[in-house]
Write a structure and sequence with these properties.
about 240 residues; alpha/beta; Rossmann fold; three-stranded antiparallel sheet; globular; binds adenosine-5-diphosphoribose
């Protein structure tokens, strides 16, 4: 069986990382203005403020741990491979919790918080410390060119060719912990339906495009995802 999973901030919520649009108003974009912190224009205007925002999130990430949902998805990847199938795990999240839970192949379509990109030489480097305008690029040595390796509003998400290739070839499409409000990721479920692929949503509450899913499972990801993975293995015997 070939399963395509897209995860969003909800899969990391129970690890202590903020979501963006939770209905209770606790989301990051209810407290911070994305147009001042998550656009290329904002970075040009005030790189120090943008770095400070991502430095705080990077420190929070390094103090966080994967939860049972991340661990279950890593188990799904291994179990499917053992059965001759495969998991394509795509995430909108910029954290590394899928990897720390053991997932071997993760497509970060919105980039990675623990990497820095040099706009001068183009090199992307692992970066776990605070990042600032005076930090020299590890490759070209020049200062002033490093930015978080994160896809900002108005920029093109990463790995789209590989993502659509795997999506079109899947037997099952599953969206986990995402509000379905940011494109192109929010449109993946429509593409799956056009291809006649079965769709499932696992979320705390119905997402913006809940009506496009054949199956819907609601509850905290740390409970709902392991239960779903267990059922996949029973069904796939
Ligand atoms: N378990 C499962 N789902 C949860 C949990 C939980 N414990 N807590 C919250 N959720 C759900 C919320 O109900 C919501 O539907 O996770 C979803 C989070 O939605 P958003 O905050 O909009 O996050 P996401 O969908 O990942 O946002 C997509 O928007 O700002 C951009 O780049 C940013 O990648 C992000 C993109």
């Amino acid at each position: 069986m070939k399963i395509f999973v897209i995860t969003g901030a909800g899969v990391s919520a129970e690890s202590g990382l903020g979501t963006f649009r939770d209905k209770d108003g606790t989301g990051l974009w209810a407290r911070f203005d994305p147009m001042k912190l998550a656009t290329p224009e904002a970075f040009r205007r005030d790189p120090g403020e943008v770095h400070a925002f991502y430095n705080a999130r990077r420190r929070n990430l390094l103090a966080s741990e994967p939860n049972a949902a991340h661990i279950a998805l890593a188990r799904l990847e291994t179990g499917l491979a053992e059965r001759g199938g495969n998991l394509t795990l795509v995430t909108q999240n910029i954290d590394d919790l899928h990897e720390r839970a053991g997932a071997a192949r993760v497509l970060h379509t919105h980039g990675e918080l623990l990497k820095a990109r040099c706009v001068i030489c183009g090199e992307t480097s692992l970066w776990k410390d605070d990042l600032g305008v005076d930090d020299p690029c590890p490759r070209c040595g020049k200062k002033g060119g490093l930015r978080p390796h994160v896809v900002w509003f108005g920029e093109v998400p990463l790995h789209l060719d590989e993502i659509y290739g795997a999506l079109n070839d899947a037997d099952l499409f599953v969206a986990i912990g995402t509000s379905g409000s940011v494109y192109p990721a929010a449109g993946f479920v429509s593409q799956a339906r056009r291809r006649g692929i079965r769709t499932c949503e696992i979320n705390l509450e119905p997402s913006d495009n809940a009506d496009q899913f054949d199956e819907r499972r609601y509850g905290p990801a740390s409970e709902a995802v392991p239960a779903w993975v267990d059922e996949i293995f029973v069904a796939d015997r």
